[in-house]
Amino acid sequence: MSNEQQVYQKLITDMNQHMLVADDNRVPFLRQILAKLGHPDQAYKIIHIAGTNGKGSTGAMLAAILQENDYHVGHFSSPAMLDDRKQIRIDGQMISYTAFVQAYQLINDHLSADFAATSLSIFEWFTLIALVAFQQAKVDFVILEVGLGGMNDATNAISAPLLALITHIDYDHTRILGHTIRKIATQKAGIIKTGSTVIVAPHQKQMTRNVLRTAANQQQVPIHFVTNIHLKLLAHNFEGTKLQISGPMIPNHTYQLGLIGRFQLDNLATVLSAVTWLSQHDVQLNEQRTQRALANLKIAGRMQIIQRHPTVILDGAHNSDGAKQLVQSLQQLAPNQKITFLLGFLADKNYLEMLQSYLPLAKTVYVNTPSQHQRALDKDELAKVIQKHFSFSKDHLFNEADAHTSLQVALAHAEVDDVIVITGSFYFIKQFEGDQHV
User: pLDDT tens digits for 43-60?
Assistant: First the structure.
């Protein structure tokens, strides 16, 4: 282990692991730190992305398109699948130990002598380190994905971004964000700042649109709702998606999308609308390069195929809306086919609603406990919930020693055309990210 890696590991170990996003004084505090650092967030153009589902895919598409068009791009997203440093990427590569430590030390040097490093949560540290590292790397654009909510999220400490993108909004993190769509949308709308332009993904609830429109009017910024999309699906299988798409901000083109899942089409429409807006505002983007970027894109943990024949899919759906979208995609990709599910949830998620989506489609279910997470739902408790609340056969419910044993047993019993889906939480599926067979 190198010296820089040892320093990095110690920094991570010493960081405050608590979530502080529920505290409404965090963003002003972080803005003071950014001011002391000379506003690194103003050194590049930022596209800030908030929403319940779709942030990761939307951000990945935009980053890929900008990179394919020869722009230097910083990308901040969470959670990481395998290595926490993957939350901070520069031109597609995760931040080096050296760059991470250098950014940390620069920040630490600008803080007062009586400041304790543990005053910041680990997510706040990663956000600040990303913003500084992107400045040091002299990137042109930064794709900045909100961690949780929007208004009180650490990423919202930035100055007004070039674009604020709002992906699909639904119920999630209700204990923190609120139990109504109005309250949740209000939190997401918190990223809308004077000086930006807002683009909103299609198929939002009317209340969501009302809240976002009001916030945009208050900040006196233009807001574009992605609507009236004309879409013709030409091919949709486990190899990818081919479609023809057009809309008010989308010229009529045919795209081969490397991503699978019907839910990606709304994300694509949002991205292409943003691409049109950027092109209209002096960002040079070539259509052929855009098409190439989308065709070659794969995203860890989003309908990610790690094996074929039988097909094994990792998907990070972690709320009821994501679960419904996953099921719709599976029904289109494997019609009339029963699916084997490996499930692992966090205890504070609405896993009952997710189970309502998955179990009618399930041939067999393997219950699992997400590893190394204090909010994990124990697999024995999950088995009890399935038996108590759902008329699911005990003969098709399996409780193996660990997640990898679950997959080995599932594969041993699978036919060549079967589909095995590993889902429930990013913190569960990340256990399999290194197990790719294709």
Answer: 999 999 999 989 999 999
